[in-house]
Amino acid sequence: MNNNDYIIRPETPNDYREVENLAREAFWNLSKPGCFEHYFIHIMREHEDFIPQLDYVIEVGGKIIGSVMYCKSMLRDEHGNVKDIVTMGPLCVLPEYQRKGYGKALLEHTFKIAAEMGYDTVINFGNPDNYVARGYKSCRRYNVCFEGDLYPAALLVKVLREDALDGRKWFYCPSDVDAPCDDEEAVEKFDALFPPKVKGWQPSQEEFYIHSHSVINRE
Ligand SMILES: CC(C)(COP(=O)(O)OP(=O)(O)OC[C@H]1O[C@@H](n2cnc3c(N)ncnc32)[C@H](O)[C@@H]1OP(=O)(O)O)[C@@H](O)C(=O)NCCC(=O)NCCS
To answer: Which residues of the chain have pLDDT under 70?
Structure first.
């Protein structure tokens, strides 16, 4: 990859099915047999928390090889004060283009736009390996947790301004945008619109289980 071999541009309605298919290719069998992320993208675009200004694709040779989306979410402190932030994801790159810097380019491009829009904090739930090099830190470092003082290992925070978070305890209040993805029948029905693909087990599913069930107990 070099700076001239790709284009980053907003997603358009003509891209929708291609982007859903690329998400399916990227996430297939990654965290469970099959995947739901193509359905997630499909319903996310219609949700009130979706942020169209941060919906970008990356193209190489006229082909879309990566995509990133964001939605609105909030932090709430112990006194009920609320701060608007963004949640990043899904982020995906076609398997044959992964680990070449395209995901990094998509993130850096959209972080800049998010900052210009006035946001100073990005959160996502994911494998830390993919994000620490982008400046993400554990939620524990910024005192950001779920209700019940839970600091998941996979809850990652990227500040777009050094003074974004002042050390007070914040509770992360995600959007309910992904709630329909629990409906396995709806996911299956949507998946049937795509070319057949074999579901199966791979080690990344255990890795996902470990990351998504781990919490950080101490600083
Ligand atoms: C995760 C994903 C979006 C990253 O995009 P990418 O284009 O492959 O990643 P990049 O080449 O831009 O690398 C991003 C960072 O990942 C890390 N990384 C790269 N290769 C890695 C490897 N083999 N193991 C661990 N970390 C690695 C590096 O920290 C890299 O940062 P650096 O360039 O500063 O070193 C992409 O691999 C993907 O679509 N994976 C499947 C779907 C997925 O897991 N999405 C994220 C959900 S949490």
So the answer is: 1
At residue 81, the pLDDT reads 97
Predicted local confidence at residue 3, as pLDDT: 72
Other C-beta atoms lying within 10 Å of the C-beta of residue 93: 23
Burial class of residue 15 (count of CB atoms within 10 Å of its CB; 0-12, 13-18, 19+): middle
- Cα–Cα distance, 215 to 219 (Å, whole number): 11
116-146 residue pLDDT tens: 999 999 999 999 999 999 999 999 999 999 9
For residue 11, report the distance from its CA to the centre of ligand 1, in Å. Answer: 21
Q: Cα–Cα–Cα angle for 72, 35, 216, nearest 5°?
A: 60
Substitution candidate for ligand 1 out of 127, 130, 132, 207 with most atoms within 8 A of CB? 130
> Are the C-beta atoms of residues 122 and 142 closer than 8 Å to each other?
no
- Angle made by CA atoms 79, 84, 86, in degrees to the nearest 5: 135
CB environment 32-53: b (16+ within 10 A), e (fewer): eebbbbbbbbbbbbeeebbbee
Domain ranges (residues) in the chain? 7-174+200-212
Fold annotation for 7-174+200-212: Aminopeptidase (3.40.630)
Q: Of all atoms in ligand 1, which is nearest to the CA of residue 93?
A: 39
Closest-CA residue, ligand 1 atom 33, reads: 101
Q: Is 168 in the pocket of ligand 1 (CB under 6 A)?
A: no
